[in-house]
Sequence to fold (240 residues):
Amino acid sequence: MKGLTKGVKCYVKLIAATALVLSATHVFADENLLDPYEGFNRVMYSVNDSLDKVAIKPVAKAYDVTVPLPVKAGVGNFFSNTSDLWIGVNSALQGKFGDAGSDITRLLINSTVGIFGLFDVASELGFEKHDEDLGQTLAVWGAPSGAYFFWPFIGPRTLRDTAGWLGDSYADPVWSARSRSIAVRNSLVALRFVDIRASLLPADKIVDEAALDKYAYIRDAYQQRRRNQIFDGRPPRLDD
Fold:
């Protein structure tokens, strides 16, 4: 497990270094301004897709089939609860102080009445779940999106969202927890990863049926979704 932790840290450093190099050069660039490193990204997409088919998706399917729905709901609620503090911080950094107060209230309610977040009592009481991260905060502050990248394991990110992901990972309470047992910490990280992948299984069928070019479909869907998140569902119209 110590090797796993060191491997993840090296992977984070590799992503940061690769993004920096590619953003500073045009060695892999083509004429697509929205995806200037499409050649590099398609290779990474193929690597990610192969790893998913061989090692990740089968585990996610087994998890989805064998684990009872109430247990899966509890797992999802638990990890969702661990993110509410950082979501509240980003809400405040974006000037959404009312949302930040609601995020912190959710954390307090679900961590106590909801038994460490296993039950989403706060939503039942009317405290809405928000979805804010450092990438969105950087966008609100005016940081440009930068080039689009497709990374193994973490998937599509713009340069801005790659930087945001690195910050989010550093602030992640699951990763940063100083647990007495590193094995427990790493098991929680693996469980969350599998739970997220299992939740995306229905989307696989949509992509398979709707997309002639899966890479382009995922890229465009990601960029549209991020734009929608940044503007809280009310993005301004784009010029042609």
